[in-house]
Backbone:
């Protein structure tokens, strides 16, 4: 079962206040290398920047191809940000952290 | 070599695309269960080819298909194809599935991605609708997004494996690439991966866009190599495949009129049905009039006819021809004659051919005129026009249409035509019209340069136009010069006077001879009468003589009886007796002479 749902309580922490919950869907292709990498990269980003303020659904396209098709997915891995608006779509294994943060609307921490 | 080739041909199954001309070129279509690559620059016709194949499969064989569009949106593709009569919107809802695989510019790219997800989706869709065909249109757009040659190669492999696992009747991949400046790094591998590579090209020649197609690879099959013109009509793309190398047209022995009697006589009885005639000449030499006369004669026989002209409206041509007694309007009205006038600017020769083909399909003519065929060379390259002119003639022959085309040549020498469209070599009959200027007059001369398979006159004739139509007059040569117009008229009058004089002299002589003959006859008659009279006279004389002899014998007998003579005398009497008897039966002719002999014996 690759369909994952993670929901964590909003836990105030250090850093800028991120009150809203980011809802995302990650479309992967089973254990294809890029897909595995994408999960790892996203989890790392979430852990670092969103703490528990996110909701992620991971959909295995090989298992639910017609759903992915209906969702307008083309390549894997693809990350769709559902809310808050604006919606965004990111393709690739999410190795470029900056572009992911930018697309998700997460302000980059000043080093 | 040949045997193995043909064996391979047997083994390799193919599937028809239904694109006119292409299936002939490829000897059957695309390789079945295999992948074909269509490559070429933008706007070269790759997408139309792919989509048309898909549409044909869905419409003719009820085979559903999937179209994956990487470059254009599905909506754009359907809208672009609306100019073709494919009924695409209806098909898109049932037999065809369009996947909009164009990555939105809003999509953020972060790291590598692959096609495994997409291929899983396509597999699911394929199973859902039972697709037999798949098109990946503009795969280069997707591959360049990978920004990595190794990744590109990997994804090409992935597609290949997918296609191998999901056996389709045919898979088509289109990519923008043109050998030299390819945007795809793994260009060579891409070509290796597929079983059939078709190259498309669009180029400008003298401001006219020309489309070309060429099969550059076909694994396990023979195909017609070389570049062929592609044209686009209402039914979609059409490849002008070459005619089969072997010409198999059946030659007809039937003769039809070339327009008027005198010309038919010069041609040894008219034109052969299904033959082609070329009329050349400088402007104003009545090429159109001759063609019009041919059309009028064809309609007169009740044959469907097509008159194609360029840059001049059909109505004007009909009006101009009516001034020389050629009435075409009634034929148009009855539906026998179709007149079509085309513009030459900006239309390439191949587009003209497509239009002509469509007209032939619509009207089904038995006779056809193109006036002038040289007009197709106006826009675009001469090479293309030359090829089109040739193909048109072959097309007409294949359809058994008797065709007459006119061509303007710049010089007055017919040979200059050879530098133009080069139709003269394939036309069956070649009539050349020229001007002869002599004594302040310009007169039209008609010569038959060639007429295959038939006797034809080698004489130059003067073409005379009147409101009764064109006619041909004999020309005279005097002192090595050809006489036409007024000079011909003078010569004709002179000849006429001479003839009259000769006839009078002859009549006179005949009368004389007749009189002499009658005279001789009369004289013979008189002589015959003389002869008869003389004969009768002679006869009469002979019988008198006999009578005299007989009476003298009688008298001697009487004398003997009276004198009681000896028996010797009796014998003489016995001889004489039969003579007397014969005389009594009234015999004539030489009996007189016989009697004379008897008479000599008797005494």
Residues:
């Amino acid at each position: 079962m690759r369909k994952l749902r993670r929901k964590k309580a909003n836990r105030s922490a250090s850093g800028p206040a991120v009150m809203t919950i980011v809802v995302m869907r990650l479309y992967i292709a089973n254990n294809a290398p890029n897909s595995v990498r994408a999960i790892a990269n996203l989890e790392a980003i979430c852990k670092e920047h969103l703490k528990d303020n996110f909701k992620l659904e991971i959909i295995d396209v090989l298992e639910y191809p017609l759903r992915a098709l209906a969702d307008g997915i083309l390549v894997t891995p693809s990350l769709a940000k559902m809310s808050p608006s604006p919606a965004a779509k990111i393709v690739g294994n999410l190795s470029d952290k900056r572009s992911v943060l930018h697309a998700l609307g997460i302000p980059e921490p000043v080093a | 070599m040949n045997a193995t080739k043909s064996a391979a041909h047997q083994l390799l199954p193919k599937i028809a695309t239904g694109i006119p001309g292409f299936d002939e070129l490829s000897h059957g279509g695309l390789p079945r269960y295999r992948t074909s690559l269509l490559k070429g620059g933008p706007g070269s016709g790759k997408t139309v080819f792919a989509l048309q194949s898909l549409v044909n499969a869905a419409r003719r064989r009820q085979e559903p298909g999937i179209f994956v569009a990487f470059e254009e949106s599905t909506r754009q593709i359907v809208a672009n194809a609306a100019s073709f009569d494919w009924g695409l919107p209806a098909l898109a809802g049932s037999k065809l599935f369009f996947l909009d695989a164009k990555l939105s510019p809003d999509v953020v790219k972060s790291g590598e991605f692959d096609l495994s997800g997409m291929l899983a989706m396509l597999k699911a869709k394929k199973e859902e609708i039972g697709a037999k065909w798949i098109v990946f249109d503009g795969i280069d757009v997707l591959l360049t997004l990978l920004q990595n040659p190794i990744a590109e190669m990997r994804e090409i492999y992935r597609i290949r494996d997918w296609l191998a696992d999901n056996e389709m009747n045919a898979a088509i991949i289109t990519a923008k690439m043109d050998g030299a400046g390819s945007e795809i790094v793994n260009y060579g591998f891409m070509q290796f991966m597929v079983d059939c590579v078709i190259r498309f090209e669009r180029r400008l020649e003298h401001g006219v866009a020309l489309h070309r197609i060429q099969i550059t690879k076909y694994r396990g099959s023979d195909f017609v190599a070389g570049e062929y013109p592609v044209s686009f009509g209402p039914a979609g793309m059409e490849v002008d495949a070459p005619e089969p190398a072997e010409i198999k047209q059946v030659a007809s022995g039937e003769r039809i009129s070339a327009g008027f009697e005198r010309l038919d006589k010069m041609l040894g009885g008219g034109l052969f049905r299904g033959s082609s005639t070329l009329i050349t000449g400088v402007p104003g030499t009545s090429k159109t009039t001759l063609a019009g006369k041919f059309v009028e004669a064809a309609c007169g026989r009740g044959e469907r006819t097509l008159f194609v002209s360029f840059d001049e409206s059909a109505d004007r041509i009909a009006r101009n021809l009516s001034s020389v007694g050629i009435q075409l309007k009634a034929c148009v009205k009855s539906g026998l004659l179709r007149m079509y006038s085309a513009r030459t600017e900006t239309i390439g020769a191949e587009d003209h051919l497509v239009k002509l083909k469509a007209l032939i399909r619509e009207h089904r003519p038995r006779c056809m005129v193109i006036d002038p065929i040289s007009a197709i060379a106006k826009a675009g390259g001469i090479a293309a026009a030359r090829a089109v002119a040739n193909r048109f003639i072959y097309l007409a022959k294949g359809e058994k249409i008797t065709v007459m085309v006119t061509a303007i040549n710049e010089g007055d020498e017919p040979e200059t035509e050879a530098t133009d469209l080069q139709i003269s070599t394939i036309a069956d009959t070649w009539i050349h019209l020229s001007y002869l200027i002599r004594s302040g007059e310009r007169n039209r001369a008609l010569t038959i340069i060639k007429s295959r398979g038939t006797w034809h006159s080698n004489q130059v004739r003067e073409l005379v136009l009147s409101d009764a139509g064109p006619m041909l007059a004999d020309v005279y040569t005097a002192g090595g010069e050809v006489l036409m117009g007024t000079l011909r008229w003078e010569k004709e009058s002179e000849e006429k006077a001479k003839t009259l004089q000769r006839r009078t002299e002859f009549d006179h002589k005949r009368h004389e001879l007749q009189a002499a003959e009658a005279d001789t006859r009369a004289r013979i008659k008189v002589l015959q009468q003389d002869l008869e009279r003389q004969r009768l006279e002679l006869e009469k004389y002979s019988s008198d003589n006999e009578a005299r002899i007989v009476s003298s014998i009688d008298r001697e007998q009487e004398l003997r009886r009276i004198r009681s003579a000896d028996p010797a005398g009796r014998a003489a009497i016995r001889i004489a007796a039969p003579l007397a008897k014969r005389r009594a039966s009234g015999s004539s002719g030489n009996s007189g002479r016989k009697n004379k002999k008897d008479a000599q014996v008797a005494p």
Remarks:
- Helices of chain A lie at 33-50, 65-70, 97-104.
- The radius of gyration of chain A is 14 Å.
